Amino acid sequence: MEVGAESFARCLPRLRRRILRAAFVALDMEFTGLHSTSLQNNEPSLFDSPAERYVKARQSVQHFTLVQLGLAIFSKENSNKYVVHAYNFFLFPSTLGIRDIEFTFSASSIQFLSHYGFDFNKFLKDGIPYMNEEQEKILKQHLLAGTWKVCSTSCADRDVLKKAIDEVTSWITAAKEEDTMILQDLNGYHMLEVQLVLRQALQNVWTEPLGDKKVMVKKVSPEHRQLLENSSYDPCQKKLILLSARGFTNLFQILVKAKKPLVGHNMLMDLMHLHDKFYRPLPESYEEFKRNIHNLFPVIIDTKTVTKSVQKKCLFPRVSSLLEVYTVLCSSNLNPRGPPCPVIALASGCSRYAEKESPHEAGYDAFLCGSVLLMSAHLLLCRSTDDAVDAEPSFSQYLTVLAEHVNKVNFIRGGVSSINFSGKDAPCRHPPALVVHVRGWPGLTERQIYQEFKARCRFDVRRLSKNQFILLSNKHKQLILRDYRHHPHLQVSVYRHWRHSPSVNCLLQISGIVALWSLLAFALGGARSC
Predict the structure, then answer these.
(1) In the chain, N or C terminus with fewer CB closer than 10 Å?
(2) How many angstroms separate the first and last alpha carbons of the chain?
């Protein structure tokens, strides 16, 4: 279930086979932060259009990184049963390259992860490396030129390297050809870096990784060394170094080639990190980002948009978190007359999730995601027709009933309900707004308006004119209108575009001036004719 750098290469062939046999794949991610507070006006707002939100989120994605990616592979084994293989991948940016990677931690995000038992040592010490196409291109150039380096600048890394070199140089003077020694306790890139440095410094040694954090060093003749270097079994060939440095990106490319339906929950940030960390740096253009994601993953399903539909069409309680939705779907008899929902069985290596809830562990949330999708799709299929539903519906039947939700990713607090990755977004429709007219309170700012109203409701505020502000909120409007009816400085009313819009007011003023001049000209012209 838990995969780090040490075991990733061994797991990759098995992961590839399982993905190719899968009906669909669900994913979830945990980050070092969500919204950067160091950037001005970066908080999501009800005023945001999808393009405006993308600009904000792009800046945050560039600041933060992934710490864990969860993958749940759902395979239809027989009849009406899906078997799930769930994985937690600890990730850490590749340190093999010419440029060191920088990223930011949000204190609240780290506190949140810590509260749910996240293992930061696995992230830091055994995180699987990854890189995007741009970083890979730079590394290739430096590997060919021989100017590569490992960006390990800590004293601990230097000490490991120095200790290994000292051990080998002390041993080699008395060693005979074909003699060997073993270097112990080498983690991650230390395995690769020690071998490359020793080979570069000493022309009469050869190295081979033994696994279990060990490297064998052998004394050889220069001629034997040359033969070994040209062997296809050399673990330090440039293409193998690149394969190792690419790390998790190898699995990302398997997912892209497999073109399996990709399932997530509130997955906009997940998709942006996928693009930025494993494919290419996020483009400035929102539309280009949408096109790229659709080319990579032609079928995306966000369970947040699906469950919104289930809540409208079925007697489904209003719950917010993914775990709450899963619990309701498992415990409620929402479909008493239809065929039973498919059996969802965790594979033997993932049984911990069947025994204990693990919220905000990426593999567990990915498992919840895929399970919610199957149960919701089954419920919608049974409600979509009066005819009898097959006792064992195929996944393609579920995709058909989910068609209106495919490639629609939930949009949190904004001008649209979802982002359409396979076409144009719906026009922005904001909730009815309130306008605040300020009297006798000079210099009032958006921040002060926010502080004034924040105790009554969650809302967003923007300045409309020198003495007017717009408030957008999904609820409690009547409460605010009532409480501020007799306020000495703030007059609150429902926003009317024709009355409060600066552009409409400007147009009316210009029209009034034009009409006045026309009337005056007519009056003066009439007076002359008399």
Answers:
(1) C
(2) 98
The CATH number of residue 220's host domain is 3.30.1370
Question: Which residues have CB under 8 Å from 179's CB, separation 6+?
Answer: 218, 219
Residue 528 lies in a domain: no
DSSP state for residue 458 in the 8-state scheme: -
213-242: pLDDT as tens digits: 889 999 999 889 888 887 777 767 677 778
Q: How confident is the model at residue 498 (pLDDT cuts 50, 70, 90)?
A: very low
Q: Where are the beta strands (DSSP E) in 296-398?
A: 300-302, 343-346
The identity of residue 321, as a single letter, is S
* Pairwise CA distance, residues 214 & 6, whole Å: 12
Q: How far is CA 510 from CA 31, 282, 503, 505, in A?
A: 52, 44, 11, 9
Residues 464 and 493: their CA atoms lie apart, in Å, by 14
Burial, 189: exposed, middle or buried (Cβ in 10 Å; 0-12, 13-18, 19+)? Answer: buried
Give the separation between CA 188 and CA 5, rounded to whole angstroms. 6
Closest-CA residue to 417 (of 46, 60, 61): 46
- Classify residue 462 by its DSSP letter: E
Does residue 267 share a domain with residue 126? yes
Q: Is the pLDDT of residue 70 over 70?
A: yes
| Residue 425 within any structural domain of the chain | no
Between CA 438 and CA 436 the distance in angstroms is: 6
Instruction: Please list, residue by residue across 101-124, b when 16 or more beta carbons sit within 10 angstroms of its beta carbon and e when fewer do.
Output: eeeeebeebeeebeeeebbeebbe
10-21 as b/e: b if 16+ CB within 10 A = ebbeebbebbee
Q: Are residues 107 and 251 in the same domain?
A: yes
Q: 457 is in which domain, residue-wise?
A: 434-500
CA-based R_g, the chain, Å: 30
Residue 529 is encoded by which pair of tokens?
């004719």
pLDDT in tens, 75-123: 998 778 999 999 999 999 987 765 678 899 999 999 999 999 999 999 9
Is residue 184 domain-resident? yes
Angle between helices 133-145 and 238-246 (to 10 degrees): 150
Give me 370's structure tokens.
Answer: 């895929």
Which helix H or strand E contains 514, and what residues bound it? Answer: helix 502-529
Contact 395, 76 (CB under 8 A): yes
510 or 311, greater pLDDT? 311
Q: Cβ of 287: how many Cβ atoms within 10 Å?
A: 13
